[in-house]
């Protein structure tokens, strides 16, 4: 089974990078998506995927059973860290993978970022 872990920085509908602050003096957090990718026959063997995020997250263990979106999850973060991934197969076996979450943000040109701190739907 050849599975890769993919990621991206989630953008708004107009293409700007979303960020928010969870407290007035807090850091900018960015909305990220993580999912698995591979051959259809390999993905079809997976029942669900567990992602273990950094221990500072309120709920560090995230689970996805949504095959249609390649078992993706989204979350807000300000940092980069190691994600431990466990694939739970339909046959009862598991496969463990590790992914170094790292992303590069473009320079702020004044119009390519959008603050969604005050919006309820992010």
Description:
It is a single chain. With 122 residues, the protein is mainly β. It has a single domain, classed as Sandwich (Immunoglobulin-like). It contains one helix and nine strands; from the N terminus they run βββαββββββ. The chain has one helix at residues 40-43, and strands spanning 3-9, 17-20, 29-38, 46-52, 61-64, 73-77, 82-89, 94-100, 113-115. The strands form two sheets. Strands 1, 2, 3, 6 and 9 form a five-stranded mixed sheet that branches. The N and C termini lie far apart (34 Å). The mean pLDDT is 94. This is YEATS domain-containing protein. Residues 1-122 form the YEATS domain. InterPro entries: pYEATS (IPR046888), YEAST_sf (IPR038704), YEATS_dom (IPR055129).
Number of alpha- plus pi-helical segments: 1
Outline: elongated
In sequence order, what are the helices and strands, one letter per element? Answer: EEEHEEEEEE
Named at the architecture level, the CATH assignment is Sandwich
CATH homologous superfamily name? YEATS domain
Instruction: Supply the CATH class.
Output: Mainly Beta
Helix percent reads under 10%
Number of strands: 9
Q: Determine the CATH topology.
A: Immunoglobulin-like
- Intertermini distance: 34 Å
Number of domains: 1
Q: Radius of gyration, rounded?
A: 16 Å
SS-based class: mainly beta
Task: Classify the beta-strand content into a percent band.
Answer: over 45%
Low-confidence stretches are none
Query: What is the arithmetic mean of pLDDT?
Result: 94
Report the major sheet.
5 strands, mixed
Pfam family, one: pYEATS
Domain YEATS: 1-122
Protein name: YEATS domain-containing protein
Organism: Gallaecimonas xiamenensis 3-C-1
